[in-house]
Amino acid sequence: MPRIIFFLILSFSLKSAAAQEFPAREIRSLCNFAPGSGADAVVRFYSDRLSKLAGRPVIVENKPGANGTIATAELAHAAPDGYTLMITPVSSTIASAPHLFKSLPFDPAKDFAAVTTIASLSFAIAVDAARPVRSVQELVDSLKAKPNHGFYGTSNNTGVIAAELFKAKAGLHTTYVPYKGNAQALIDLLGGQLDFISYDATWMMGQYKGGKIRILAATSAKRSFALPEIPTLTELGYGGDDVTPWWGVVVPAATPRPLVEKLAAWFNQITAEEETKQFLARNAFEPFPGTPASMQALMQSDAARWKRYAEIAKIQPQ
After folding, report:
1. Class of domain 123-218
2. Sequence ranges of the domains in the chain
3. For residue range 74-131, what is the model confidence (pLDDT) as tens digits?
């Protein structure tokens, strides 16, 4: 047997054995956003189910800040051994990042390996429920009556893209106020420092049902099945763009393929469970299973899509 064939077979055998033994210890699950956020709820749900399938603890580590960039950078520089992963809105934290920041501590195209997609959701525009603003048109009118058209807040890239596209269509110059987490943005909205917020429907649902905020419009192409009474910006004449971020699982580039495929199988098994479907429905998500290949292709196409959105919204990288 030629030596090169022998070593190829040996290498394959070693990788297969490593995959069979994986995981031999706890797994780190990085979260881009703060504890208590909608994103945190999703990460903890999937991490808990992964722990049961893997037979090892899956430890969630919240590393919020810089619109998700801090956790994403840590993943990019982690060892490619399958023991550090990130369950994240990939379209926001990776695909759109180059169009919002002049420099990044990671390369979105080279530093990550796709595992699988898991779910998609809508974002929404909301105001303080105590205010007399009851429609998007009333919000636009009230903003235009203010110097510089007031202020809006969010703590993630998708929220910025959604709000800036809305501003462009409405002819607004509203100032963006960045937040590290959802809680302070809500406090400032209810305190009158913000005129509206742009966040995921997952987190907004609780505040909406609790009577704290009034959701005026969704940013998706079609109405959310979880919020069927809420119109889309497109319906109201302020859309034409489908801002529907999707969630997936990523690991550092160069993670062995057998480990990636093993993780993908586990995550797709979780997404297929009835308990998961109910959890996703309660939190305004729709199941979106996939494969490493389909997710990798989606990451590439989304990079171009979010670039176009940033250009339409005239976003200048900061």
Report:
1. alpha beta
2. 3-121+245-312, 123-218
3. 999 999 999 999 999 998 889 888 888 889 999 999 999 999 999 998 899 999 999 9
